[in-house]
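Worked example 3. Consider a protein that binds phosphoric acid mono(formamide)ester.
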Amino acid sequence: MSQLSSRHLLGIKDITAEDIQLIFETADNFKEVLNRPIKKVPSLRDITIANIFFENSTRTKLSFELAEKRLSADVVNFSSSNSSVKKGETLIDTVNNILSMKVDMVVMRHSSPGAPHFLSRNIKANIVNAGDGTHEHPTQALLDAFSIREKLGDVAGKKVAIIGDILHSRVALSNIFCLQKLGAEVMVCGPITLLPKHITSLGVKVEYDIQKALEWCDVANILRIQLERQQIKYFPSLREYSLFYGVNKKMLDRLDKEIVIMHPGPINRGVELNSDVADSEHSIILNQVENGVAIRMAVLYLLAGVR
Ligand code: CP
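Given these inputs, the predicted complex is written out as structure tokens:
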């Protein structure tokens, strides 16, 4: 197979294990390109891509823009904070105006779950979901699984614990779908108030004791507390959260095994993760960021093939 089964990347739920393997094999090639003195290929010459971000981003936005430029695409950037959205323009009007300037692909981040799915039903361009509210963040899950594969040789058979604010996390949901499609076992761990009620219906293990979760897993993916999405108090204070669920070096020293530490960023140092772990030899956090460019090059290149 050399083509994706879908012309959009809206979520990991909608793609197959074969699609994911194809993205990884393509990303392997692009990673090799990124290590050359000349890091650019002409693959998307004559393709115009709009990055439209209705929510803040550092990693995802920069990574997509770099991926697009490495593929020689023409790139335009839109950020809602300094646009006519502030004057009351609707999402579909904003996007149709951008598309009338002959844009071929749209990379979109939006605070509403389903916003990229809505767009995909209403416009002709390929859509890549760069994070839709608390729903999915497919390229983050792909780069996370790719980084596990790079570090441990394979994803199949590995035990991955996703720790923290699962309730508000699009990274958690996309990771669960991606890791399971690739044959990994997944556990979620956090305070009961930050775990969705019916999470076991996704086939994941649930653990409330973080030390037990660390003992069980090969890889711990630590998530940020998403205060910006929390309308009520889910725990008494950040200090208390950190006391019960913050990962520090002492906890890793108690383990009688190797463990890989991941975090999608941005990190709240001293809350969910201490610097003595984030910057330690266990951490592959910056490898995740590096791999993000190759994964996004692969996704854009492959989607351009199903236009
Ligand atoms: N991991 C991630 O999505 O980071 P940004 O919000 O900075 O893009």
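Take a moment to read the result before moving on. Residues 57-60, 131, 140, 264-266 surround phosphoric acid mono(formamide)ester (CB under 6 Å). Strands lie at 48-53, 74-79, 105-110, 126-132, 159-163, 185-189, 205-207, 219-222, 260-262.
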